[in-house]
Amino acid sequence: MDLKNVKDCIEVYPLGAGQDVGRSCILIKIYDKIIMLDCGLHMGVNDLTRYPDFEKIKQIWNIPEKRKWDQIIDLVLISHFHLDHIGALPYFTEIYNYDGPIYMTSPTKALLPYMCEDFRKVITESQKKEFTDDSIPQTPAQKIINDSRYPLIYTQENIQKCFQKAKINIKIIKQ
Fold it and tell me: 96-130: per-residue pLDDT in tens?
């Protein structure tokens, strides 16, 4: 690799946390490979803007709408288990149907389902206070994706499926 031209081959796009705390999600394009660093949510937002704007990825690189996410993102790399770094991962894997490689440390993978489930429960309880029980949708998440009244759209099943996709083959180099 010619390091003189490295600035011409690396592009960085924050989809979240660029100038804010929360919703950490940074795209790094190195030559023709795209890595997503973290996939977090913003816990202080009560609509779909709590998630990174995944559709912007296709706009940035003029990618056709129908292209599958695992044909766009080569790797998702999660830095640690805080919700602002992992909270949108079930949303991305199960709602957007990303099925490519996801890597994280063993402790992060162990805590992912607990952190996401706890957050899901908190939001579900707050929604029950806002809406009557019969107004909470019983339809699949795909049908309510654009309904901002129901911003949390991943389920316990989504969390478990996401957890099963994560890999832990990361070597931590301590200094």
Answer: 899 999 999 999 999 999 999 999 988 877 766 55
Q: What is the pLDDT of residues 42-55, one digit of tens each?
A: 988 877 888 998 88
Query: Residue ranges of the alpha helices (H) in the chain?
Result: 6-9, 55-60, 83-86, 89-90, 106-130, 156-165
Cβ neighbours around 104 below 10 Å, total: 25
Residue 141: how many other CB atoms lie within 10 Å: 18
* pTM metric for this prediction: 0.80
Fold of 3-167: Metallo-beta-lactamase; Chain A (3.60.15)
Provide the residue ranges of all domains of the chain, joining segments of one domain with +: 3-167
